[in-house]
Amino acid sequence: MMDSLSVLLQAVPYLLKGALITIEAVAGAMGLGLIVGIQMAVGQVYGNLFIRRLICLYVWFFRGVPVLVLLFLFYFGLFSLLGLNLSAFGSVILVLGMTTAAYQSQIFRGAIESLPHGQLKAARAVGMSDVQAVIHIILPQALRLSIPGWSNEYAIILKDSALAFVLGTPEIMARTHFVASRTYQHLVLYLFAGVLYFLLTWWGVKALRKLETRVRIAGYAHSGGTR
Amino acid sequence: MIVPPPDVIRVENICKSFSGKNILTSVSLGLTQGELKVLIGPSGGGKSTLLQCINFLIPPDRGTVWLEGREIQIHHKRDIYEFRQQVGMIFQEFNLFDHLNALDNVAIALRKVKKLKKQAAIERAMAELDRVGLREHASLYPAQLSGGQKQRVSIARALAMDPKVMLLDEPTSALDPELIGEVLFVIRDLARNGMTMLLATHQVGFIQQMADEILFMEGGCIIERGKPADLLLPASRTRTRAYIDKLSELYEELK
What we know:
The structure holds two protein chains of two kinds. Chain A is mainly α.
């Protein structure tokens, strides 16, 4: 018992540095997914048939193939085929980002489509172009509605990021595995890794919940839920 | 020979069909400066579609629109955006921007479309809210306003763009009876100040008192048109008269 605790204590700084890399990877992926996902959602709702089909294809691909397969496919396959010299860390961000973009686009699409059609009509009626209407009227409302779904997506991607371990990215999982395979203190080390993931999920979801409350539109009824 | 005054807005032969069903069949009308024309008729008759076709919120299949003698190029996006700035639109369901307070609802188009500076936009928006009696409500959000207040904000939003003509699609039909008066009051005030308006409504008293011309729409056509005094003459056997009698009857029953 003493052994395992002292191993853990020694490993803590090393593992926390891994947590930092996990946070960076998830932040990068979620950010990429946000930017790409919003544009895909707008394209899917307002785009022409060609654009809609293209986005649909993209979404089906990334929803249909496991992240683990995608990581190998892109890092060992596609990137080298394309002559892209991307680091393992960069590949993780890109693959997780493109995957979450597919899911996020559907969160945003649902939110956009749930808005009353009159919002767009009124924006056009005062002379806004379609782009202005989407930027100033549709997205500010749709993004507010998307926060609960988006925080769910954060929790999923955070845990999917553990798969980055297979490309040798020194994040929580990889570092835990590294220490455990040398010290044989699997129980306490993986327990600690689990706690780290749990805390990151909890803080992130909590922060998003706070954001949701802060940007809530006054007088709007769709409050409620658990704190 | 008297030359008729030029139309502020004129539409010719507007046609629209949805999946093979004709909603509008060759509708034409024009409004001169300061005129108030009323669209009336059974629901499904095409009033709302006509109003939305006039400013291309629903693209008409055929037809031409002129604003002050200039033809609007329907395939020219910029032309349509510019045209819409000059045509105020009021919806039955208000359609206020739900994420903005009353002031920003009025100010946003001033800032983003007219490119006014923030301070200038806010001052103008405040003046318009004042005009519809809502200065004290500037910081409230749509969800915190009554139906009548929402509709007045939407009128202020349209007025802020200095429209040359206003299209009003049953502005009081979604309101509690007690709130109709305040909105009609604002519209009456606009009419007296010379705003050119095309208004779909079933408010009989208002029509009799204010309308320069009644356009009765049914089955996608204007089947009757004329001055209220002519169409509504108790002895006249017009479709309009019969319809308005029915409305009044219903109203009496409710009372």
